[in-house]
Every structure is written in C-alpha cells, then in structure tokens.
Specification:
By secondary structure, chain A is mainly alpha-helical. By secondary structure, chain B is of the alpha+beta class. The chains are: A mainly alpha, B alpha+beta.
Chain lengths: 102, 469
C-alpha cells in the first residue's frame, strides 16, 4: 500500500504547529516521560519530520508515538487547533502498515 | 566524537544523555520557527551535573546550548553544532518564604507551577509572559522576560535577588551571586548582568526570586474604541489619576474581530480593545471601578465590560479575548494566504508610552506598504508593542519582505526613543537591530564592552555562541 497520501495529511496537519508548547500543560504523559517526546508538542514535531521522511524511526520516536493516550486534552490548549490524537493515529497507521509490508 | 559522548555518559549516567536523532530534533527547534543542529541532549538533575557538563565542555572545547522550554522568539534557544543542556529535570521548588518575600527554585520550574504554589499563600510571582504555562524560570531569567503586568511590576531583572551559576572553566566553577535579601551591595551587580544574558555568560542552576502579595482587589474594565487616539487618551487619563495600573492592554480591530469568536457575551464588540486593571483594596474597589468606567465612556468607548477582580475578569472572558492575540494572528494569516501552513512573525518593540499614538499609526502605514496580513497587540501600560505579520515559508519573496518589514519596525522604535526589544531578547534575529540601536545612541563601544564581559565569563566562547553580541 502506498502511504504517501497519508504522509501528506500528516504534513498538512503537523505544519500548523508553531512550537509554542501551550499544549504541554494538560498532557498526562509528559510529566512521566524522560523528554519532550512524551508530550504533544514533541509528538506533533516528530510527526512532521516523519511525514517528510527526514527522520528515521528511532527507538525514542516509537516510544513517543505509542505512549500517547489519545485523550485529546492537549487540543483544548492548542492555539492552532491541531488534532493531535488523529495525527498520532495517522503516524501509527503508516508506521505499522510499513512494518507489516516489510 | 563517540569517545567524548561516552565520556559524558560515564560522567552523568546514561539516562541523562541522549543522542537519539528524534530527541535531538525535539530540542533543536524553538517557537520562533528557527531550527538548529545540535548533536546531543543532556538532562542534568543537579548543580554537580551541570558543573560536570561545563568542565567536560571546556576540556573538549565543545559548544553547549542551555535551554528551558524553547519558547524563545528571538533564536536564543536554538542550538548550533554542539550539546543542548535542557534544564527541564531541575524543577524543584526548594522554599517559599512569605516573611522573606522569596521563592528559592531550580531553573526548570515553570512559571505557572510556581504561581500555583504561591497562590496557596496569597502570593504571586508577577512576571507573566504569555507563555507562562510552559516557560521556565531559567528561560525567563536568561531572556529577561516580561509580561502583561510589566507596567506595574517590570521584568525579570526586577525580581531576581540571587543566582547560583556555573561557568565553563577547567573546574566547572559553581558560584552564588547576589543576596537573598532585596537590599544588597555586593560589588558590581552580576545578577542583573546574568538576567537577560541569553545563556551566553553562565548556566543558571538555582534562583532566589522575589515574590509579592496577590492584590486584594483589582477592578478591571474593558472598552472598545473606534479610533486609537481616543483609546490612548483614556489610558493617559487613567495614568494622570494616579491609579496603579496592574495591566493596560491593547488589541487592534483586526485582532478583536477574530479573537471574539466563540467567546460568549462578546458577539457584538468591534473596534480596538483597551483592557485596564488597577490594584486596590476592597474598600476602594467600587469607587475606582466607577471612575474607570466614566473615563472610558468620556473618551468614546462604545461597549464597556467590568469585573471586580482578575479572577472575575477571567470568568467573564475579558482576559480570554486578550490572550487570543496569538491565535488571532495565526488565523488572520491563514485567511489572508488561504492555507493552514503559515507562520507569524512577531515583533517586540518598546516606545515611551507618550509616543504610542505615533508608533501605532506609523506601524500601520509601514505595514501597508508591504501588503502582508497584519495585527497589533501590546502592553501599552509600559509601551511594549507586538506588531505581527503572517507569512508563508515556501515563498522566498514573502520571507524577504517580512525581514525588511522587521528592520523598518526596529528603526521606527529607535526613532521614537524606544528600543528594538522589550522582553523577547536579541538572540539571532535582532543582532543587527542591537547594532543599529547602539549606533543611533552613538554608543558602539558598549558592544565592545559586552564582548569583553562575555570573554571574562566564557573565554573559549563555548556557551551559547553566536547569540546576543
């Protein structure tokens, strides 16, 4: 399956992020993780880099993507209105699909 | 480089050192949109960790880039080729003393978290940048941050009593500068030299901050005006009546038209917004409120909202409208360019409040020349304006235009007797602007002195190199 169209959707949504970090205040996983990747700001930026294929899927990248609870608390505070849970779902979709295909 | 990284992992422990490219990428970007090229992130958990990092960097001559929460808008938090030192794990509040009026904290504490702890004692830390929910004390110290309450409480330089710092030398020397008390004559004032130094002089590992009681009452009014002159006349009259303005905020009509969407009770407002709040005791609050309403009415405010306190202003949505400046700037840019992937270029000039009419009118005419989507908001209480234009990054001509606009806005601030940066700092984006300003003041030698001070703290130029001067 060709995932390029899904990657385009990921880029479109993740590009809205200005890295303000307002989303981080309501994220339940960020305080439990060792770095910014366990919060929404980190997940959105990694999604952007993943969509653009400029980042290999490292161990910390996978942890970031699969520790999201999809609770959407972050969306309440996002000035750009980014749908973080859906973005994370799309990244998981591509990641798992490509792993299966390999 | 592998040997050096392994050495650092041995010094600090493997769980504090990350060379995973995903993690490095996350700490190589900041809110200004700038991206850097660090190759390692370290997460010190104590002053001795920071000292070990400074010692290692000095010995290996490797640049280190301190970072809070990367909400900088000037480029000061974006790393070059080197090691990013994130202070986010150093987030302990050691002590809050009401009697001494201080809070003793680590640099990774977020401003909002400190205020939550202080609120239980009826106190506050009054420097409140718009990013306070994410911004850290260490980042705010190094940026010399300000906020909405600047007119009454100034900026970070007014609220730091003492600092523990680490300098990059062969020992990773730890020092305490300044005093726990407000009064302090400890030779030259190194505390206020570090505040606003953007991580170029030392690594801040602990800070004793001043705190202040929450106001007993804070009558607040919000009015909407058809023209800027009337709005500023109302502001001037409030000042001449000797009210201690806690905040005096402005949004232009474009920002208002977008910011009001979805905020119940504000559907019919139009024009420029003026929000003012005064510190008072309970007994005087009603009298002051009535007087403020009369002032706004006399100067032609069309619709006036009131609240007895900032808490009530929050509940009624008055502060929501002001806080929506940033999303309104983004939305304005999206509408103009017809796409969601836009960036907002936010300026941070300051002019004497007596020159605000000239500044606001000239900003409008300057921006019209460039044909870029424009919004203006600011802290008029202290003369700090945040004009902003929306751009699309994939169009080089637009980016160039925005840059020209940026330079012209800085020149305007200098011409009106103000400064190119009030609270966002110099970083990478305003180095040229700083030179312009010092030239205008016929004080270029001040830049040489700044460079000499930098060499005294950091002889190898490995601490956030390339920033500020």
């Amino acid at each position: 399956m060709d995932y390029d169209d899904v990657r385009s959707r990921i880029i479109e949504e993740a590009s809205k992020c200005s890295y303000c970090g307002f989303c981080e205040q309501s994220c339940p996983t960020l305080p439990l993780g060792p770095h910014r990747g366990y919060g929404p700001r980190g997940r959105v930026y990694l999604a952007l880099l993943f969509g653009k294929k400029v980042l290999t899927e490292t161990r910390e990248f996978r942890k970031s993507v699969f520790t999201c609870l999809l609770c959407a608390a972050c969306t309440l505070n996002c000035p750009a209105g980014i749908d973080v849970p859906n973005l994370v779902r799309l990244v998981r979709h591509v990641l798992l699909g490509e792993i299966e295909a390999a | 480089m592998t040997g050096e990284i392994e050495e650092l992992k041995r010094l600090l422990g493997r769980d504090k050192v990350y060379d995973d490219p995903s993690v490095v990428a996350l700490y190589s970007r900041e809110a200004s949109g700038l991206e850097g090229n660090g190759f390692l992130v370290v997460f010190p958990e104590s002053t001795s960790d920071v000292s070990a990092i400074a010692r290692w960097a000095y010995k290996r001559r490797i640049p280190i880039y301190p970072q809070g929460s990367a909400t900088s808008l000037s480029g000061s938090a974006v790393p070059g080729k080197g090691v990013i030192v994130s202070f986010e794990r150093m987030n302990r509040i050691y002590e809050i003393s009401v009697v001494d009026s201080i809070a003793d904290v680590e640099p990774g504490v977020r401003i909002a978290d400190l205020n939550e702890a202080l609120m239980t004692k009826g106190y506050m830390f009054p420097v409140d940048p718009a990013s306070h929910v994410v911004a850290t004390i260490g980042g705010a110290i190094n940026t010399g941050a300000g906020g909405m309450k600047g007119a009454r409480y100034g900026t970070m330089r007014d609220w730091v009593n003492q600092l523990e710092i680490v300098v990059p030398d062969e020992k990773g020397t730890v020092m305490r500068v300044g005093c726990r008390t407000v009064k302090c004559r400890q030779g030259l004032d190194l505390v206020r030299l570090i505040v606003g130094s953007e991580g170029t002089l030392a690594l801040v590992t602990r800070a004793v901050l001043r705190i202040t009681p929450l106001p007993e009452s804070s009558p607040t009014v919000m009015g909407f005006f058809d023209n800027v002159e009337d709005l500023l006349a109302a502001f001037t009259e409030l000042k001449t009546r000797r009210y201690p303005l806690l905040l005096a905020e402005f949004l232009d009509e474009t920002a208002v038209s977008i910011a009001k969407k979805g905020v119940a009770g504000f559907e019919s407002v139009r024009g420029h917004m003026f929000l003012a709040s005064v510190e008072s005791n309970h007994e005087a609050a009603e009298r002051i409120m009535d007087d403020m309403v009369a002032v706004l009415k006399n100067h032609g405010a069309s619709i006036i909202y009131t609240a007895q306190s900032l808490g009530e202003a929050e509940e009624k949505g008055l502060l929501t409208i002001r806080r929506r400046l940033f999303p309104a700037q983004i939305e304005n840019a999206r509408r103009f360019w017809g796409k969601s992937n836009v960036r907002v270029f936010i300026e941070d000039i300051v002019v004497p409040p007596s020159k605000l009419v000239n500044a606001i009118n000239e900003l409008k005419s300057i921006t019209e020349k460039y044909g870029l989507p424009y919004t203006l908001g600011g802290h008029i209480g202290d003369g700090n304006l945040h004009p902003a234009v929306g751009i699309v990054l994939d169009d080089k001509k637009v980016v160039e235009k925005a840059h020209e606009w940026y330079v012209e806005v800085m020149k305007l601030a200098i011409r009106l007797g103000g400064s190119i940066s009030a609270e966002h700092g110099i970083g990478l984006l305003k180095k040229d602007g700083l030179r312009l300003e010092m030239e205008k003041l016929d004080s270029i030698k001040a830049l040489d002195i700044m460079k000499a001070i930098k060499r005294a703290f950091d002889p190898l130029n490995i601490l956030n190199p390339g920033k500020l001067v």
